[in-house]
Amino acid sequence: MRTTMLFYSLIALLAACNSPAPKPDEDTLVNADFTPLEIDLENLLQEGKFPKDTLITITYDHFFKQKKRFKAYPLAAILKPLLAQVKDTSNLRITFTCIDGYAPNMNLSKVMEHEGYLAVQDLDQPEGKDWADSLANKFRPYYLVWQGIGKTDETFAWPYGVAEIRIASFIYDFADAYPMHNKAAQKGFTLYQLHCMKCHSINMVGGVMGPEFNYPKSITTYWEKEDIWNFLRNPQSYRYSAKMPGLPDLPKKEFEEIYTYLVAMQGKKPQE
Questions:
Q1: Domain residue spans in the chain?
Q2: What CA–CA distance (Å, rounded) separates 190 from 179?
Q3: Which residues, other chains included, contact 107 with Cβ-Cβ below 8 Å and sequence gap of 6+?
Q4: Per-residue pLDDT averaged across 105-112, rounded?
Q5: Where, by residue number, does the polypeptide cross the bilayer (predicted)?
Q6: Euclidean distance between CA atoms 146 and 61, whole angstroms
Q7: Distances (CA, A) of 150 to 11, 131, 181, 183
Q8: Band of the pLDDT at 33, cuts 50, 70, 90?
Q9: Rounded CA gap, 79 and 67, in Å?
Q10: Is 72 exposed, middle or buried (0-12, 13-18, 19+ CB in 10 A)?
Q11: Residue 90: its pLDDT value, please?
Q12: d(CA 15, CA 138)
């Protein structure tokens, strides 16, 4: 993964060759020197660093598609002691790593400004059960839920099986997947990060639940554009046993921006 030091070394090298160095995308360099935090949630719990659990009601749960009640730990109360020395959370990303390889990420400031909880028990289950039998192995150890999030808001992650949390600067964790200096592709990156990266990595950045899409070869070099579009909308029409949920409501314009990003990344491979 390219570090900040390597990035600035490259800028210096370009200048030394009498080539005008491209101006860094300044917003991506905020908190570039932040040392990443790796948080094993079960270890943190065993160390007695979790807050007291509480009973919560979620008006609309995005997984269950209905009102739900849980026993849960407030996420902000878990994170605040770990971030006590951090004065500015601008451009820090938080990644929720799940036992199945799913790894959604969000802006840390957004997480801290909303009411997230790590649920450990579905209170709508019979006494003595934490989760329905069909969900228990998937949902443990923690299921991330949010209070006050509307039905149509897709910008919040609702992962289950959350085992670890990672907090790092954007440039530290996403440099290899980010199309620096390409504004058109950056729009697609933002959409890819929202819809795809939680399962499909780019240059080994992102989730591992699904296949990598750029390294060593870009998906755009062995799949036709129209097939990518159709598969994205209805994976089961291509693969009978596909577990990937389709995105039938994704606007074609957004797909075009994602595709522009994927094409732009063809020539960008991870630093080795």
A1: 37-170, 178-267
A2: 11
A3: 91, 92, 93, 94
A4: 96
A5: none
A6: 8
A7: 44, 24, 34, 30
A8: confident
A9: 26
A10: buried
A11: 80
A12: 51
Query: How far from 43 is each of 51, 67, 74, 129, 240, CA to CA, in Å?
Result: 14, 31, 17, 23, 40
The span from the CA of 184 to the CA of 261, in Å, is 8
167, with CB counted inside 10 A (0-12, 13-18, 19+), is buried
Alpha-carbon distance of 109 to 228, in angstroms, equals 33
- HEC-encoded secondary structure of the chain: CCCHHHHHHHHHHHHHCCCCCCCCCHHHCCCCCCCCEEEEHHHHHHCCCCCCCEEEEEEEECCCCEEEEEEEEEHHHHHHHHHCCCCCCCCEEEEEEECCCCCCEEEHHHHHHCEEEEEEEECCCCCCCCCCCCCHHHHCCCEEEEECCCCCCCCCCCCECEEEEEEEEHHHHHHHHCCCCCHHHHHHHHHHHHHCCCCCCECCECCCCCCCCCCCCCHHHCCCHHHHHHHHHCHHHCCCCCCCCCCCCCCHHHHHHHHHHHHHHHHCCCCC
* Calpha distance 164→169 (Å, rounded): 17
- Residues 234-245 pLDDT 10s: 999 999 888 899
Q: Which candidate, 208, 216, 202, 175, places its Cα nearest to that of 262?
A: 202
Task: Record the tokens describing residue 75, joined without a space.
Answer: 């996420």
What's the angle, vertex CA 219, arms to CA 24 and CA 230, rounded to 5?
115
CATH code linked to domain 178-267: 2.60.40.420
Q: pLDDT (tens digit, 9 = 90+) per residue, 131-165?
A: 999 999 999 999 999 999 999 999 999 999 999 99
**Residue holding tokens 């509480």?**
54
pLDDT band at 89 (very low <50, low <70, confident <90, very high): confident
